[in-house]
Amino acid sequence: MIRTGGRQLSEIRSRIPLAPAALWLLAGLLAIRQAAHTLTLPPGRRLADLETWLGTDGVLQLPGSLYDGETHGRPFSGTPFAGLVLRPLSNAAEQTLGVVWTIATLLIVAAVGVVVARSITATSSRRARVLAAPVLISLMVVSLPVRGNLSLGQLSLLPVLLVLPACLAREPGRGAGISAGVAMALQPVMLLFAPFLWFTRRRDTALTSVGTFAAGTALAWAALPQDSLTYWVHHVAGAGLGGMPDALSNQSLHGLLLRSGLQGPAEYAVLAVVAVPLVWFGLRRAVAYSLDNQAVLGTALTGCIIVAVSPVSWQHQQLWILLAAVGRLGTVRADRLVWPLVVAAVMVFRSEQLLPGNLQAARTIADNAPLLLALLAAVAMPFLVRESPHWEARPPELAAAGRAPGRRIPVLPDGLRVLSRPNLVLELILIRVGYSFYSFIRASVPDQRTVAEEHGRQVIGIERFLHIDMEHALNHFTARTEWVKAFSGFFYETFHFLVPLSLLAWLYISRPAQYRSARTVLCVATATGLIGFWLYPLAPPRLMPGHDYIDTVHGPQDLANPDFGALTEVSNQYAAMPSLHVGWSLWCGLVILFMAPKVWMKVLGVAYPLTTTFVVMATANHYILDAVGGAAVISVGLGVQYALTGRNPFRDVEPPPVDEPPKHDKQVNQQDLPVFR
Which helix (H) or strand (E) holds 608? Predict the structure, then answer.
């Protein structure tokens, strides 16, 4: 076994010269898609906040106050200074405004991506800088904060862009300070960046930003005295404007405490007890990482503190959490992906997509995931410092390099044929995302009943021609034999997911090298099965009218009714070819047959796919040709896996010993943090 170093990874990267162009194309397509989606939304959902802020005479909230919710449906939630900025908007330009506003929002996203990517890769190669920007832009475009900004017509992304030059530049000029001050005038909670700038040795910039904030706020007081009094005094810097603070979409500590039942002075006291040390310790960490030449991470952590301590932190104000994904965690390369993927999952998927189900504890975590992630990033995650011996992660354990002369197998370069155990959290994330993708595709495949039934007649005709049409006899035998019916129903509904997941867990713990290969086989087979569902929608025997099959699992179905049962709302019922029940069981049987230590276990391994094949036919869920299709997709998975790695996925391969990491690792601790003076 050998390891691959930086030189080999450079060679791998050199094989994909089109990667930058492809990534930029992807970013552009995602931006176009999001813009088209926003502009085609019906009135009332397109630029919802912006449209409600426009007054009856065409100018923002005129006649009347900015914060007159009774007249305009919903009060303006920005600062009086933001009201001055938006005053020129008119109803006459509303349609044009929607296009301009949407394009401007996407341009702000692109600018944030480029600025952040340049700061992250300041000491990296040009290729790294080129690749980082489109990846970050693509992730931001599909994230919930950007999608919220696009649909609502909010200003929340502009302050992020305005404050970045002051925080990321090594020697920010007066213009950067003015830009940050404008951001603070638009969102007063951004004033937290003033001490961050001060303690990161940007004192002139900090003073300029505070001065600009004061000037802008004073200008708004002079122009809009009544509105300024309403915003700063009656609503205490905007608290209570723009929605109910206890709403689930408010991902701040204030919102969480209100949802927990605390109100009034007790809630304010608890908030102060939690928020003050959070700001103190979180800001110290942010300053320390910024002084460690991790300016983006320090800035993002400050933004995470802002998300937590703001009176309200709506979805469109949470971009800072996504930027915190730049922090480095872990000692090996696989571990480095865990934190960015967790952050990306929380910021891209809604709570019901993250943790589906009705378990109250899981529901609470998913519903408050952005706030919890912001708190973890700000005060808890032990991000590495540049002096750490683990700053450059250890390479994974790899298979033997090279290939026989003239052979094209394995296709994967040496640096990607890994043998060591993958990160568990990363695998769980991939399994969750993969299952969501599987469920979405399976439910979205064409479900034309006529086409599916015609394909069913084709399959039945082929089986009769080959004299293998045994499903009808098995099905009726099962229906009239109670113990077979009960056993088949239990087997069909219980083991399909339980056995594969159990075997994956066993492989992960005891056979990490085989786990990677076996998991690849299963994933490729499942993806191939989804293609089959799409290309050949097929009605299973139980849904074939006129053929006298009995659904022994789900009960009788009224096939004369197009909506023949509630079962059709669960998943597409016309995805019978291939049978993944048989395919997955065959994969399980192969794993047990080749890897189980006992003979009786191997016998069970052989019996499991055979029993599954019997059950899916006995319950009228599949034809025998569906079972053949299930075996075929597993064969495809085996072939693809062998072509990629050049090894048998079930062969016992011992990974090389792993180097022991250094005993001591330098993390950010209290001694590393600068002292406030």
Answer: helix 599-618
